What we know:
binds adenosine-5'-triphosphate; 460 residues; 47% helix; single chain; five-stranded parallel β-sheet; binds magnesium ion; alpha/beta
Amino acid sequence: MGKILLIDDDTSLREVVSYMLQEAGHEVLPAANGQQGVELLVENPDLVLTDIQMPVMNGMEVLQHVVESTSDNAPPVIVLTAHGTVKQAVEAMQLGAFSYLLKPFARAELLLTVDQALHTCGLEKDNSRLRRLLKEKTTGSGLIHQSKVMAELMDQVQRVAGSDATVLVTGESGTGKELISRACHDLSPRFDQPFIPVNCGAIPPDLMESELFGHSKGAFTGASDASLGKIRQAHLGTLFLDEVAELPLSLQPKLLRVLETHQVDPVGGNQSVDVDFRLVCATHRNLETEVAEGRFREDLFYRLNVLHLHIPALRQRGEDINLLWDHFTLLHGGVGVYSDDALRAELQKQNWRGNVRELKNINQRLVLMRRSDTLDLADLRRLTPQSGAVSPAVQAITNEGGLPLGPLPEDGLSLIEMEKEIIRRALEMCGGNRSKTAQFLDIPRHVLVYRLEKYGTGKT
Length: 460
Ligand SMILES: Nc1ncnc2c1ncn2[C@@H]1O[C@H](COP(=O)(O)OP(=O)(O)OP(=O)(O)O)[C@@H](O)[C@H]1O
Ligand SMILES: [Mg+2]
């Protein structure tokens, strides 16, 4: 419902229209002429309804005044005009009026036009505010942030991007390591050259060598064509080694050699090839621990860790949550969708162990499954896992097996730890057979293999 400035010198029309608007729940500021009306603009009305022909300051002048004086936040103006003055109504539209109503108008017509104006302009105002805010807070790589820690990190990214030194990006899962790595490329002098990502955790170890270093024709069974390999594809640009801790130990000296000599030796080839690329790596693991435990070569670690960017967990930068939430709402098609204060307060309280990715997924669920254009706490409870909407099978193991899924602990719970435990037990139950375990867990085998590698349980 809106605050409506109603300007007309006809007293009875003012009374009737005021009554209709008030009955529909609007607040009305009545004015008997343009001069009075313009004075009432300080009350910040959401909408102006003005007659055109009036003795002291006519409707066109009022319109001009509104358009010029309150520019960015100007309320929409609907002009009221008698038959015979339609030409003036059209001029008013050209001057920036939202719409016009021909007198005499019916109640329904009045309320419909008023609602349209309030709705359309409300949305426009909100979206343009949001768009402006997002633009201010976004770097070229679509990174949304407004916290101090992220501003500092982005500052480091800017500085780091200019150099050719290797960058190591660390942070918990879902914090935005891939986005930051991309930003390192986008903001670098190599921005218009290729950015080649390689997920070291997703490529089977035996294929990794040719995937990275390339191979010559006939280098091994099945190599019917030569392949450049990702490193050479990144020539002049940036190579992004994601989940670098998963790079097989056996290939680590070979990568080190490339970094030191700027030359690649394709599998089965007998000639080294010059390459010029910038390396950015990311991992959610602590590489120092990996080194200490013999899973990562120390010399390579030092070579990768020249410049280090650490992304703080989302729970350490609560100020980012609101803006990210609004960004994702728009991203997921929720134009005109609003989130109420109680929901926003709850978002601040959550632990976000899955970080930005978890926030993004929950937002998508809420926006897609919404019942109205206002998202509230009830929607969050209804659509997040805490709602108890688990399958009977899950319910059964959680009750009998003692996994902490019943009432969730107040102070948080690591989904990753839970997943590890479930995978461990399922694997044990299936006698270590990965295909059976994947079937039992209802996930594709390669997903299971990836997780086993990722959690470091695959090697046992
Ligand atoms: N600051 C941000 N602004 C907008 N979107 C973000 C931001 N941070 C993360 N995201 C989004 O969250 C998701 C997870 O980000 P990303 O893949 O970069 O995380 P990650 O740290 O690489 O996670 P993982 O360790 O699991 O690979 C992506 O969809 C990404 O677009
Ligand atoms: Mg990632």
